[in-house]
Design brief:
Layout: H1 7-14, H2 24-35, H3 39-49, H4 55-76, E1 85-90, E2 93-99, H5 107-110, E3 126-129, H6 136-144, H7 146-149, E4 154-156, H8 164-173, H9 183-203
Parallel strand pairs: 2-3, 3-4
Antiparallel strand pairs: 1-2
Length: 209
């Protein structure tokens, strides 16, 4: 069952959290959530406890993690269990999302929701969308998300259909992004060759002599 979460209540906690930072603020947030009866707090506590756990403790924690994600994963992250989508969790938050070609995802509708404070994706640091047929229209949407995406440790957009000019804009906005092997660039090159062939044919047209 979905839990109603007020982003204004969550914000003071989430704004202090970093997956690369200390664990203590996560434990404070977990306690607060559990006091409110929110199972997200238990997931945060369980995953935080995995660091430094003994082998026996880790077995129990993994079972608890699996139980919690099975029951509440889709409530916490709408991409959890989506076809051809991999979601990696850390400290009760999504750390890495891999969206493959043919995934059950509508980029324009779904991806903006990743930045919502209502769910566990608000801290994700790595996003992979390879060969997902993303084009320049979606590139402009990515640029509009600039401040958030620029903070990512990993942004892999290889094998999509961005044009050469869009690749330049994305590289300027996100210097760490991987943008190789764009089919749009191949189309650019084919178009350039076609245009050159047309000009050559026009130059050879006997009517011009």
């Amino acid at each position: 069952m979905a839990i109603a979460r007020d982003p204004d209540e969550l914000a003071p906690f989430v704004e202090r959290l970093s997956l690369a930072g200390p664990v203590e603020p996560f434990l404070v947030f977990a306690d607060w959530l559990q006091e409110k009866g929110d199972p997200w707090g238990e997931l945060i506590a369980v995953q935080c406890a995995m660091t430094g756990a003994t082998s026996d403790q880790l077995v129990r924690l993994i079972h608890a993690e699996q139980r919690l994600l099975s029951a509440h994963g889709e409530d916490l992250c709408f991409l959890h269990r989506r076809r051809r989508v991999s979601v990696e969790w850390r400290r009760g938050f999504v750390d890495r999302i891999v969206i493959e070609s043919g995934a059950d995802v509508a980029p324009f509708d779904d991806l903006p929701r990743l930045f919502s404070l209502r769910c566990a994706t608000s801290l994700f640091a790595r996003l992979v969308m390879r060969e997902c047929h993303l084009d320049d229209m979606f590139g402009r949407t990515l640029l509009a998300w600039g401040p958030r995406l620029a903070k990512l440790d990993e942004l892999d957009l290889e094998g999509n259909t961005f044009s050469r000019s869009m690749v330049g804009k994305l590289e300027a906005a996100f210097p760490r992004a991987r943008l190789g092997d764009q089919r749009g660039q191949m189309e650019d090159r084919r178009l350039t060759r076609a245009e050159a062939a047309i000009r050559e044919a026009e130059d050879d047209d006997p009517r011009d002599r």
